[in-house]
Protein 1
Amino acid sequence: MTTGTIERSRVANASEGCVTTDEQLISRLRDIATVRLNEPLGRHTTFGVGGPADVYVTVRSSAQLAATFAATHGAGAPCFILGSGSNILVGDAGIRGVVIDNQAKATRIEPLHIAPDSPVPAPRLIAASPDSEAVLVWAESGMSFAALARNLARQGVGGMEWACGIPGSVGGAAVYNAGAYGGSLSDVLLAATIADEHGATRYLPARELGLRYRSSIFLRHEIAPAVVLSLELAGVRGDAAALTAKVADIDTTRLSAQPRGRTGGSTFKNPDGHQAWELIDAVGLRGHRIGDAQVSDKHCNFFMNVGAARAADVFALMQEARRRVSERFGVELENEVELVGEGF
């Protein structure tokens, strides 16, 4: 999952052209954070594929993130926010404009008390645990959601153990309403802080994010261009040893069912009434290969880079799965892995 740029349409197949000639923008960005030009994105994605970013900016705080986002928009350049590099397939021609590598990872834990008249209603976790001590977990959007869940368990804070294997960032979790093993972000989310294209920040209670199955107002383009800076999440105090053991059990289950290696995670969303992997398996694609892209033998909804795959190979494999499933079952598979950039 990505930290969440909110304006995908300006990134994919952008027509503005390369912005590396805009020395004024590059100089401004270098005043904010670290800048590299023509950075190969295969180095930064879990698939290990993807062409270059014209301008690659690494930010290490939410303030840098907001400032870089605003500067890029002020120059009229396309912008993409990169979180953990999972859940995306970057085209072989790369991404035009500015890619912001979000390394803002600060976190803190503090007591949580939700007053009866609070504009931020209690999430499901708190409502289901009325006798437990509640805590507020604040995390910047570049923090790994899996690392956050593991750290919380070790500190005796429960409620997010289900996220211990999610290969995405906290911000990406908000964009995609990440979930696994019976839990989802909507169960624990209190609020998000975002920044708009002018750098102004806004506090959004969870209900305003419109979280649905693997979707939010960001993905549905129901909000003006903005970037997720941080989240406020709810947890409950528990026994650290028991929580850590639960994380270990989830790890065992996940590793027994999901492949290791270079993959973007689940390739397709589960259609209503179906499991995507079962449909892909039923049409004979288990282990199927195009170039060095392969449908996993272990879990058919994981597509792998087993060598020197190109994004075009992975995309062709996705198209073949979509075609076969549609022809046989009349079911249209919807991407969970997002196509980003040019070259498809």
Protein 2
Amino acid sequence: MEGYCSFGADGQLLGGDYRPKAIDVGLGIRPQLTGKGHGKYYARAVVAYRLGPYKAQRFRVAIAAVNKRAQHVWRKLGFKPEEAFPKLGTEERFLILYSEANI
């Protein structure tokens, strides 16, 4: 297994504002496979998969503020940060990034 992805509520974290309509995406890659320049391919494949059957118009990802590599991957795909929040019950900060479905 190379990683995992999830959609909907499984891609959400407690503390974020998920009221705007969007498809939530959760993505994790095995640590041994990170840092090799393949993140954009994983992210693009996950979004393309979700585009097909559901015709989603807007995507949203929550990324740990300290995870600069993941932020870079999603920003290169056109995602833009719109919110930062502390995960409920922790001090860890997260960013919520959005993109239209034309990536």
Protein 3
Amino acid sequence: MASVLCVGIAVLDNVFAVETMPSRAEKYRATDLAVVGGGIAANAAVAVARLGGSAHLAARLGQDGTAQAIVAELEGEGVDCSLVRRHDGLRSPTSAILVDARGERLIVNYADPAMPVDASWLPDALPSSVGAVLGDTRWPEGAAHLFRTARRAGAAAVLDGDRRPGLPEVLDLATHVAFSAQGLAEIAGTDDPVEGLRSLAGRASAWLAVTVGEDGVYFIENGAVAHEPAFRVDSVDTLGAGDAWHGAFALALAEGKAEREAVRFASAVAAIKCTRFGGRAGIPARADVEAFLKERDS
């Protein structure tokens, strides 16, 4: 069983389904509600577990009821939370999320500004079973620490570049960086994903990619920009799709897949997730993904 250690943020999401995004300060009625765990690294860990991998999470929480709910759900999914540290007197991350009839989402997140960034308590060596570390930009100090351990162990160090990391060295420590369109634009200074990748390719040592929703994934292959189209689906909820993509991609690398194959596998995971409401609740199991790919290949 391939193993992935995810490091970053874990959140409790309150996801409200609405017909249209609010445009004025007045009362609105939701058509559905899901209270579910979220957060980039935590969602990626759940994706790894549901896809048949061994998932571990390193994260920071408060010492509150929200933390209890977050950890209980993760452990129920089979995620090892032994590296989740709870801090007395602080509040755990929480989000209010609106998802409209087109599947687009609006997120308001609270993260306690007093949460310590120190990562020195994290292990200096990876368990021998871990084949990849997946880090987000919400705790770049933690990602940098574990990326160093991944490098020493010869494991993949995958950065979910959904925005510019607060610690620039994280980009240099990663072996693979998969940006969101916004994250790449912040780094490269252009909204064109192809031009953005080209501008970074000559000065980055990592394998580079950018996920662009329904436009698929662009990535560097043999010195040129390659493209993997997105799978066409009827989108219900895009919340967590990018997180699931990154978790699936890291797991595929840990399983020994080449990058192009890993991209396609991860894109199938994200596509299926988009057809299901409820953020993390919609992340598919391995059997669902294999059946989906078999159908698309037939």
